[in-house]
Specification:
This protein is of the alpha+beta class. 25% of the residues lie in helices and 29% in strands. It is built from seven helices and 19 strands.
């Protein structure tokens, strides 16, 4: 096997994502043949690679799993006492990581895999992999969204749509600006929106609506690229078909 960047090797081993591997390298937690690793260093099969005190190797079998995450479960490889974790729902012994997390109060499509290259292409903003979300707002006072007048209903919705496309500052710190945008937004009626993202900052959708005085009642991810949640029940998972894997890899390279 030809040499590759250490962070890519780590991702292919299934230990963590490439971006997380870069963090570990910067923190001095990665060693090759007992020597500390720097960003830019390469590795090959046969090298002794230790990360966070654990020896890794390339995975022989790639695994791709789609899970319908319920509300109340955390998306992390770390286990916290008293918290429900999505890996509690998946009976797979191999170490997997999450290609696109959802916050604890959100639900829907989550992809689990040990294919670090694919996970990188699905989650890194530069690859612009599109993800679809259905968002329902909690309207305590109907005037919040409608403005209390039929004519202003369209104006209020259009204001949200236009600003979501142009960009919304979601940082609560007045001294720092964090602009979040959506790829597309569509009002579906009954206080529901369809949102398309190609990048996702932490709790981005919730924070964007909050800027307009709107609280998210329900947030569900239904698609990642061409991969669709379909009729998979909440809390259940299944392995991707060969055709789904082929399409997903093809989409991630565009």
């Amino acid at each position: 096997m030809e040499k590759m960047r250490v962070q890519k090797f780590i991702a292919r081993s299934g230990f963590c994502s490439r971006r997380k591997a870069e963090e570990f390298i910067k923190q001095g937690k990665v060693f090759i043949n007992e020597k500390p690793v720097k960003l830019g260093d390469s590795a090959q099969d046969g090298d002794s690679i230790i990360i966070c005190g654990r020896k890794i190797r390339l995975v022989e079998k790639k695994i791709y799993v789609i899970l319908n995450k319920p509300v109340g479960y955390t998306c992390t490889n770390r286990k916290f006492s008293g918290e429900k974790n999505i890996f509690d729902l998946v009976n797979i012994k191999e170490r997997l990581f999450i290609a696109g997390r959802l916050d604890k109060n959100s639900r829907g499509l989550v992809l689990l895999t040990n294919d670090g290259d694919l996970a990188q292409r699905l989650t890194h903003p530069k690859f612009e992999c599109c993800k679809k979300y259905i968002v329902e707002l909690r309207i305590k006072n109907k005037a919040t969204l409608t403005g209390g007048h039929p004519i202003r209903v369209k104006l209020r919705i259009k204001d949200i749509e236009n600003n979501f496309l142009k960009g919304v500052d979601i940082n609560d710190n007045e001294n720092m600006c964090v602009i979040a945008k959506v790829k597309d937004v569509k009002y579906l009626g009954d206080n529901r929106f369809e949102i398309m993202l190609t990048e996702g900052k932490k709790r981005q959708i919730r924070k964007m609506f909050k800027k307009f005085g709107c609280e998210v009642k329900d947030l569900s991810r239904t698609e990642i690229g061409e991969l669709k949640l379909g009729n998979l029940k909440q809390g259940e998972y299944r392995y991707l078909t060969d055709n789904e894997i082929k399409i997903l890899k093809s989409d991630s390279q565009h």
